[in-house]
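Thread title: Can someone regenerate the structure for this chain?

I was given the following input by a collaborator and told the matching structure tokens would be attached. They weren't. Posting the sequence so someone can regenerate them.
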Amino acid sequence: MHAPLQLMAESPTVFISFVFVLSLLVGSFLNVVIYRLPLMLERDWKDQCRQYLGTEGDVAAHNASPPTFNLIKPDSTCPHCQHKIRAWENIPVVSWLMLRGKCSQCRQSISIRYPLVELATATLSAVAAWHFGFGPAAAIAIVATWLLLAMTFIDLDTMLLPDQLTLGLLWLALLSSMHNTFVSPSDAILGAALGYLSLWSLYWAFKLLTGKEGMGYGDFKLLAALGALVGWQYLPVVILLSSCVGAAVGLTLIAFKGKNRSYAIPFGPYLAAAGWLCLLYGDWLVAQYWRWILP
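Best answer:
Regenerated them for you:
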């Protein structure tokens, strides 16, 4: 084993500290993913519609010099003055604090959500590292944490759960089951199938009864990925936790924010939070549930 890996294997403090710092950097990149991935999908959808519905001249003019827009290019800029963010202005959390939450050029406010996403990524990843310890289980849990955080904020912003993230988590979970990292392959496959079909069935039952769509297909895929990650046995816990929190948030918005009952709220963040908690503390949650039901 290489010296750095051996040091992390022998010292939990070193391992957790490394994960925290690494995840701060990843959190900075997740801010880019959260903002740009939905825009990339929207541009791709428009291009497809243009090619299908537009004239050949329109398509040719559009494709003549398409602007580069992906997770790497263009470089990050201030949304107010388009000042190019320099390296020292892009240090996770530290730069925001040094600049006092303002652009170095125009002095307009920079959203506090950027450092909060970075801190959340680092903190939750460090918790996963502490819980599982050095090894494959921690590595997979940390990557799953990154994916779930990105999906959470994208869903909050856009009501979308991109396939690039939900299916990425699904494949990560299925491949990890080959070595029984969290669950066996059979439990993972059954968890994926039951996770998808449970929400798919609720979706169609609700649509047939009301004529409305109660959730999106991204929610089905996310629960399928979580079912593959934690196993079919924990699906009831994931669904119960996410539904209770989602209902509480919905009632709060109706009572205090003046929203009506038709106001749509994203379900993905609650699924993601419940799935993450079950991954780390599933046995404890189940024990507490039965202790409450059968005192």
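The CA atoms of residues 210 and 232 lie 29 Å apart.
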